[in-house]
């Protein structure tokens, strides 16, 4: 706010300039108070409210496979293929903030499953983070099947803060074979230990 202080003669007015520079795509709500009179005992307040620009958060699949679906505007599907019971496979999604201004994109990730946590075959250790302007962030999703010969499906919700739309990612995997205590390393991903 400029000016931050001053002296007004009787009948004189002053225009105060307020500059808004949001650091995140959220609603900002603050109160500005003007103190005046002898020893600044009198006060008038005004409520200031502004919305930080919605940073766009683009979600894509890292190192796509033929069975993946990653078309903008349609349901995204991340396939893990066949994984042996007791093993863990890892795939990654890419979150990109294309903003050229200083607007970070905070986001949350939730598994949409209504199953008990101990029965879930899919997991994502990242539940909250921030993607800075121009940054690409890679988030790992794991498939750890425990039931033989079962096709498992679940949904992952990527929810940016503010007014940006959430992305629903369908995750699919199939469990077959016998227990093998090794970790399955899919091309283009890091190994995860079972």
From TrEMBL:
InterPro entries hit by this protein: CFAP65 (IPR052614), Ig-like_fold (IPR013783)
Biological processes annotated in GO: sperm axoneme assembly
Protein's UniProt name: Cilia and flagella associated protein 65
Keyword Nucleus: no
GO cellular component, one term: sperm flagellum
Keywords in alphabetical order: Cell projection, Cilium, Flagellum
Keyword Nucleotide-binding (UniProt): no
Source species, domain of life: Eukaryota
Source organism (scientific name): Rousettus aegyptiacus
Lineage: Eukaryota, Metazoa, Chordata, Craniata, Vertebrata
């Amino acid at each position: 706010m400029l000016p931050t202080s001053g002296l007004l003669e009787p009948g004189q007015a002053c225009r105060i300039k307020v500059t808004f520079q949001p650091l995140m795509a959220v609603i900002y709500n603050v109160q500005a108070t003007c103190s005046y009179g002898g020893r600044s005992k009198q006060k008038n307040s005004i409520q200031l409210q502004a919305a930080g620009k919605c940073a766009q958060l683009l979600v894509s699949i890292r190192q796509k496979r033929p069975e993946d679906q990653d078309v903008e505007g349609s349901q995204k599907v991340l396939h893990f293929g066949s994984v042996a019971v007791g093993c863990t496979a890892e795939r990654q999604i890419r979150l990109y903030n294309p903003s050229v201004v200083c607007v970070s994109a905070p986001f949350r990730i939730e598994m949409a499953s209504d199953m008990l946590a101990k029965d879930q075959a899919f997991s994502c250790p990242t539940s909250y983070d921030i993607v800075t302007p121009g940054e690409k962030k890679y988030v790992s999703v794991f498939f750890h099947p425990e039931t033989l010969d079962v096709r498992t499906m679940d949904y992952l919700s990527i929810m940016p803060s503010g007014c940006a739309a959430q992305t629903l990612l369908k995750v699919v995997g199939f469990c077959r074979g016998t227990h093998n205590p090794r970790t399955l390393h899919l091309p283009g991903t890091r190994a995860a230990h079972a």
